[in-house]
Amino acid sequence: MNLNGSIRAMPLKPVSTVSAREKPPILRAAAPDKAPRSLPAAAPTFPFSAIVGQDEMRRALLIAAVDPSVGGVLVFGDRGTGKSTAIRGLAALLPPMAAVVGCPYACDPGRPAEHCHHCREQAVLPAESVPVPVVDLPLGATEDRVVGALDLERALTRGEKAFEPGLLARANRGFLYIDEVNLLEDHLVDLLLDVAASGVNTVEREGLSIRHPARFVLVGSGNPEEGELRPQLLDRFGLAVEVTTPTDLPTRIDVVRRRDAYERDPAAFCAGYAKADRAIRKALTAARARLPGLSVPDATLEAAARLCLALGTDGLRGELTLMRTARALAAYEGAETVDLDHLARIAPSALRHRLRRNPLDESGSTARVARAVEDLLAP
Ligand SMILES: [Zn+2]
User: For labelling, which of 86, 180, 228, 379 has a CA lying 20 to 30 Å from the CA of 20?
Assistant: First the structure.
């Protein structure tokens, strides 16, 4: 059964009595302290707080939302485990962003240092409130479509060299989601990871030279049975989580029941979770504000280093991610400091994809991380 996908095949009651014309534009749901109003019938978002289980995935996404510098999130696991639903749900509950009207990169009016070349040239920048974007990168996408390209029509009809922004432009300040990232060509994955790490997309072609802001959280999902990512790419994702179809009966029943209730009446279903979603939004906003002032004690850093050393992770990326992730988790939970418990809870997501194969140890990477955590971090 596909627990994630739609069960629209069965005849349904009319989804909503709200007519298409009356449906509130998503932009209007933008007051930061208000939950989204009843969602349009055509595109309701399943509430993040209504997702059953999948704690590790939800935590990883929340951490990336608190501190995008932890790097992307790789979600490995079965089909139909709510990966795409979780990302969309999370983006929908994030506070809407102030953006320069008409800017293809949705520049933040309050951060002139990050402005694109258009916005830099303007004296006055009218702002609007827009939802956090979630951009899907389809597997067949060409590099031009991803990074942007010369606007051929304008070049041919008006003889002007103009840039037509691609998917990376649209993803700025939001999420870029790639289903089956392990089937994407290596050079594209490489390129995406570069842009995600630098926050800048540079396009040089046909006499065009463009740099534009492209800060986004890269979320890739995939089924390892259908193709592996090269280890060099794997280890550049900040976090890696595993999702599985729930095997216990009550959870399965709960998943199906909620999905069905949502499909039958999205507005009523979403209203039931508005309060819980609002609480998450509040925690996220507070965590972002708290993050810059939260330092990591030496003892925690030392433990992170010992853990990476024991596991033999390459380079220092493991420690860096471990530290940032633990700090973001502590910020989200409103903790005063980043302690060993934060480290221990986040270690599997931050490290399992960085382990070299050990011919003497056939246990899976998750088990190896868990063992090292127990040996080194147990109180
Ligand atoms: Zn701009």
Answer: 86
